[in-house]
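Below: protein 1.
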Amino acid sequence: MKTLIFFASPNKKGNTYNLVNKFIEGIGGEVDIVNVYDKKVSPCVDCKYCYTKEQCAIKDDMQEIYAKINDSDVIVIASPMYFSSVTAPMKAIIDRLQIYWSKKYIRKDRENLKNRKAVVLSTGGVYWINMFQPLEAVLKHAFAAMDAKDMEKVYAVNTDTMPVEKNEEKLKEAYELGVKIRKNLK
């Protein structure tokens, strides 16, 4: 089982990092972490190149990321919530998933689709009712493009006053989600 984690936090040792580490402890196996802040990914320019090929015309770090997506069984997007969504570098990657969408809906190519597991690990400094709904709407479409289904999630809120490293309940939840997925995908 191969797990691909998109680590989309600029804070390399913060709240999102702590959730990710506990999840990794639980899931075990082969884990590949893409630190999105270290990648050079240009935004989609709607050139429609992917309408005829399963490729993107822009040659940047997305080429490596496409290969990692294609090789994964579990895809995790781990991001703090910024203005009701993922961070900007993660959003650029999501927009470049157009090659997968075009494959299915423009070229009608349904070969080699893979059933992957979708996971969201997200943090928010404060809390309000339904705060993760906009994030989930974006990620639902991103995961669908990557053939990742049955989105599981761990959300840690009020991290401004209760950092994840001190929140035993959320750390346990992230660990147990990893264990559950490992057992279910064997």
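Below: protein 2.
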Amino acid sequence: MIQQKPFKILSIDGGGIRGVFPAMFLSKLEARLKETGNEKTQIFQHFDLICGTSTGGIIAIALALGIPAHDIYKLYLDNASKIFGCKKGFFGQLKYAAHERNQLEELIQNKFKEAFNGTDPRLKDCKTAVCIPIYDLLLGKPSVLKSNYHPKFSRDYHIPAYQAALATSAAPTFFNPYSGSYTDLNGIEIPFSNKVDGGVMANNPTLLGIVEAQAAFYQPLENLRVLSLGTGHQKFTDGKERSNWGLWYWIKQDGKTRLIDLFMQGQSQQVQNLISLLQNGIDGEKRENPVFMYQRIETELDETLKIELDETDPNKLKKLAEKAASEFQNHGTKIIENYCNH
């Protein structure tokens, strides 16, 4: 019996500027591939599907376009103050989003065009399949932007890649919903308006990738190899007896956006729980012989290293990158064996 080729999925969480963590991790992976003489030295060459949300969506699309991971890391590290350095004050944020998108849009569009000889690539130009969750405010429902990896996927592959990246990273309160338009491959102008960060429903898009593999690629669970990258999380707990559970507590007290932290953490944890159930069965009954291969790379950010989604302190970002390098040191050999040598 001929063994079926493993179907490999890379999933990248949302997390704002904390995207330096997966970007550095993947930079180390590509560097190791070159050092060891692997014929395929870029991430897209080793994964059949890359899914990403918000900052993870930006990275996912960039990788699928063939942009080296280290270029993405440098874009984040060198431009954090441009993207997030002009944050509006408290009263300004009562009415407007905290940040303007101009700098982020220019950086992403230019980086994507640079990889395609000065023209705007579209999702169809991705070198491997991508799926990118967004929330469509116009229709009032979640949506997933997909390259044309199934014959019936005819809607999204016309979309310029930079617009898809901006749509999935339009985090509420941080940026306005993304609105624009584009001319499709048939010469028809298509509006693309009021799109919001996919993190509101799938900040960790790993489960989405697993479903796509089954539904669109007809892969059995047993054939999957899934690598999931977080962006660093700060565990949110509060056991205090308090009466002030109002808007001030959830949104702005002590400079913390607790409500966003809570839904990001809760959603990601639930995805972890469901994947564990799929992989290991009820109460871990299949743990000794899991249904499919799955590895999660994440790091916890404690009180000594608080990194906000719109952090601009280069020292903090470099420390987060150092954590990513350390995680690669711990797991890189196994990841190359499981995901890059088949």
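The first strand starts at residue 7 and ends at 12.
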